[in-house]
């Protein structure tokens, strides 16, 4: 049986970068047939329909069916994997509260549609920003779907962090493991290298040989570079991250379905590391038997704790703001 994958915002930039890689088997593997549902709003339908024509022209062996719709009931019907990419961007003069409210108006109804129409094994990855709180809103509207099935993408942050470490060490990125992203997918995120390794060796030891004072390097160079990488891409490229975001989305779902020993994802907290229950926060996670598990028992020193707490405080504020709107 083929896997049904719904992509919201499929007519947008990240959607366009995602569709062809999914159809080529990069996400679920070379043996897994896929059926794609491209869910858009009326203004995005033409772009999604155009992408569907190009998908036909790709003549992908694994692609069984493509449907384009602006009706969430059709878009999520029988869906096994939902990639919630479409979101309302921040417009001129829009305050953070307005942004949260506009997105609550998208992700609440989508959560309801997932609950009503998706397959019983549905897994959801939220890419559209503010991703963590959008995932929280969708989960809280999806009666009957376990909250653990709603996740937010922080894999791009992890990939960016590993790439920066590889550059600093002049080492292949493949040897760099156990980097953790904690908290919100925002400028407050905490990319944590205290448990990371390069070729099995503690990365902080290797970094000290290159950058000297590793703590200072983290504060002034590494963390700001990772946390503000999205802005850097906009400045250089003139447009936000697209292919790298799609690639990270593929990594996230592939590892969720096929398993991994260590990555990072925004998942619902059950109080781990003192993160208030119910928030969707990024944690270091492993995936076993198709489920994310938060990697527990990692030591966080005072400095790391303060970093995590600051990002979690932002998530708490976001939850308060959407609570005040009656959206969670
Ligand atoms: P685009 O503006 O190119 O595409 C968004 C698409 O979503 C549009 O075609 C629009 O018509 C559609 N859309 C809007 N509301 C919808 C709804 N209710 N149902 C279905 N479709 C809807 O943006 P793009 O560059 O593709 O980025 C998409 C989202 O990803 C943005 O919110 C962006 O901020 C977010 N990102 C998240 C990242 C992450 O790591 N979590 C990184 C990249 C990116 O910034």
Care to describe what's here?
With 328 residues, the chain is of the alpha/beta class. It folds into two domains: 150 residues, NAD(P)-binding Rossmann-like Domain (Rossmann fold); 164 residues, Alpha-Beta Complex (L-2-Hydroxyisocaproate Dehydrogenase, Chain A, domain 2). The protein contains eleven helices and 14 strands. The strands form four sheets. A six-stranded parallel sheet has the order 3-2-1-4-5-6, with helices on both faces. Strands 7-10-11 form a three-stranded antiparallel sheet. The protein is globular, with a radius of gyration of 19 Å. Bound molecules: ligand NAX.
Concise structural overview:
With 328 residues, this protein is α/β, with parallel strands linked by helices. Helices cover 45% and strands 20% of the residues.
List keywords for this structure.
single chain, 328 residues, alpha/beta, Rossmann fold, L-2-Hydroxyisocaproate Dehydrogenase, Chain A, domain 2, 2 domains, 3-stranded antiparallel beta sheet, binds ligand NAX
């Amino acid at each position: 049986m083929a896997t049904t994958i719904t992509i919201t915002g499929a007519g947008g930039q990240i959607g366009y970068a995602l569709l062809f890689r999914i159809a080529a088997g990069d996400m679920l593997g070379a043996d897994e047939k896929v059926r794609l549902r491209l869910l858009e709003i009326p203004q995005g339908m033409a772009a999604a329909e155009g992408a569907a024509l190009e998908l036909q022209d790709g003549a992908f062996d694994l692609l069984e069916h493509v449907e384009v719709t602006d009706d969430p009931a059709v878009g999520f019907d029988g869906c096994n994997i939902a990639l919630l990419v479409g979101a309302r961007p921040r417009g001129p003069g829009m305050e953070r509260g307005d942004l949260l409210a506009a997105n609550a108006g998208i992700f609440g109804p989508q959560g309801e549609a997932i609950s009503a129409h998706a397959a019983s094994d549905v897994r959801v990855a939220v890419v559209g920003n503010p991703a963590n709180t959008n995932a929280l809103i969708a989960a809280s509207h999806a009666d009957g779907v376990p909250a653990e099935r709603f996740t937010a993408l922080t894999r791009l942050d992890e990939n960016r962090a590993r790439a920066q470490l590889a550059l600093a060490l002049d080492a292949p990125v493949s040897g760099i493991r156990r980097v953790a992203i904690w908290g919100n997918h925002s400028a407050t995120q905490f990319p944590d290298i205290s448990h990371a390794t390069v070729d099995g060796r503690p990365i902080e030891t290797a970094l000290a040989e290159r950058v000297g004072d590793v703590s200072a390097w983290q504060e002034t160079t590494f963390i700001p570079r990772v946390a503000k990488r999205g802005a850097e891409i906009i400045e250089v490229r003139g447009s936000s991250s697209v292919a790298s975001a799609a690639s990270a989305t593929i990594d996230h779902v592939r590892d969720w379905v096929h398993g991994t020993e260590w990555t990072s994802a925004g998942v619902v907290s059950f109080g781990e590391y003192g993160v208030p229950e119910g928030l969707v926060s990024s944690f270091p996670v492993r995936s076993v038997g198709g489920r994310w598990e938060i990697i527990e028992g990692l030591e966080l020193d005072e400095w790391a704790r303060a970093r995590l707490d600051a990002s979690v405080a932002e998530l708490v504020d976001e939850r308060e703001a959407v609570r005040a709107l009656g959206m969670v």
